[in-house]
Amino acid sequence: MDAIKQVYDKVKSEYGKNITNKLKMVDALAVYALVTAMVQLVYMILVGNFPFNSFLSGFICHIGIFALAVCLRLQLTSKGEFDSVTPEKAFGDFAFCALVLLFVVFSFLG
C-alpha cells in the first residue's frame, strides 16, 4: 500500500510541475464530462429510463464532449503528428465540433 501512495504522490507532483494551466483545464473538462456521463448511466440503471431519448441525449452529449476534449489535448501536446495545427486552430476545431454536437443533441431531444 505504501508503494501505491508513493506512485500517486510522484505522479501528482510531476503532473503539477510539468502540465500547463490550459492543459489542466482541458483535463478537468474531460474528467467532468466522463463523471457526469457515469452519473447519468447509474441514475438510469437505478431509477429507470422513461424518457429514453432524454437519457441518450445527455449521455451522448457528455461522451462526445469527453472525446472532443481528449482530441483537443492530443492536438495540443503531441509533437510531430500535429505540427501544422496551431493551438488556436485546435481550439477552433473543438469549439465548432462541440457546437455541431450540441445542435445534434438538441434536435434529438425533440
Summarize the structure.
This protein has 110 residues and is an all-alpha fold.
Description:
The chain has 110 residues and is mainly alpha-helical. The chain has four helices and no strands. Helix 2 (21-47) runs antiparallel to helix 3 and helix 3 packs antiparallel against helix 4. The longest helix has 27 residues, at 21-47. The mean pLDDT is 91.
Mean pLDDT, as a whole number? 91
Q: Which shape, going by the Cα principal axes?
A: flat
**SSE order, one letter for each helix or strand:** HHHH
The main β sheet shows up as: none
Q: Structural class, judged by helices and strands?
A: mainly alpha
Q: Please report the total strand number as a whole number.
A: 0
Low-confidence stretches: none
Summarize the SSE layout with pairings.
Elements: H1 2-18, H2 21-47, H3 52-77, H4 87-109
Give short descriptive properties of this protein.
110 residues, mainly alpha, 0% strand, flat
